[in-house]
Write a structure and sequence with these properties.
This protein has 194 residues and is α+β, with helices and mostly antiparallel strands. 21% of the residues lie in helices and 36% in strands.
């Protein structure tokens, strides 16, 4: 296993251990869980992960590992014509300063169909997983195997997925369509760096 793969294995083990037990693993538990026999190698990798900002570590505590509050980026979402979306892991966004982000994930916005709502191509949409939305809320939807970001509109007996750009038409959800509400838009993050 290459160095970066070993570090990623350690990071995943720490995360899974913390989720299942409610506290961080010891260095020996990390060794056992990742198959790395040397505690000094694990300590070195933990120090590197700390320097990279992927976890917090204090040497004063035996179980002194703390996870950074990070949200995974799991793929892209079209803000235009719906597109088939594969959930490909693309990294993390650190959200130590955010609260109430349980059951959330990021999708990267592609296209301009939501520009009048301030959602632009390249933005990161934080989606809270839920299967119910109120009328006029913006959310992520899967329709006939394709994923899109739109405003949820209920009119009489029909559901519309409405864009926020006059150059696009609303998507009408028919009874024959395979349709799922993926979640509600919570935040939009924009990177202004070049």
């Amino acid at each position: 296993m290459k160095k970066e793969e070993r570090k990623e294995a350690i990071l995943k083990f720490v995360y899974n251990f913390y989720i299942s037990s409610g506290y961080p693993p010891s260095i020996r538990e990390i060794c056992k869980g990742t198959g790395i026999s040397s505690t000094s190698v694990v300590k070195k990798f933990l120090d590197e992960l700390k320097e990279e900002g992927k976890l917090k570590k204090t040497d004063q505590l035996a179980r002194g590992l703390f996870l950074k509050k990070q949200i995974p980026i799991i793929g892209k979402i079209k803000a235009g014509t719906p597109v088939i979306s594969e959930e490909n892991f693309e990294g993390y966004i650190d959200l130590d300063s955010f609260s109430n982000i349980q059951d959330c994930f990021f999708l990267k916005v592609e296209g301009d169909s939501m520009k009048n709502a301030g959602i632009l191509d390249g933005d990161f949409a934080l989606i809270k997983q839920q299967h119910i939305l109120n009328n006029n809320e913006i959310g992520a939807f899967r329709i006939n195997g394709e994923v899109t970001l739109k405003r949820f509109k209920v009119q009489k007996n029909s559901i519309l997925l409405k864009p926020e750009n006059e150059n696009y038409s609303a998507i009408i959800v028919n009874e024959t369509d395979s349709f799922e509400i993926i979640g509600k838009l919570i935040y939009i993050l924009r990177d202004f760096r070049e």
